[in-house]
Amino acid sequence: MPLYFVFVAGLLAWGAGLAWRWREVKHFAPEVLAAKKSDKEIPEDVTEVEFTDLYLRSEGPRGRPISSSARRSFSCCWGRSWRASMPSGTCSG
Question: With a threshold of 0.70, does the pTM exceed it?
Answer without folding.
Answer: no
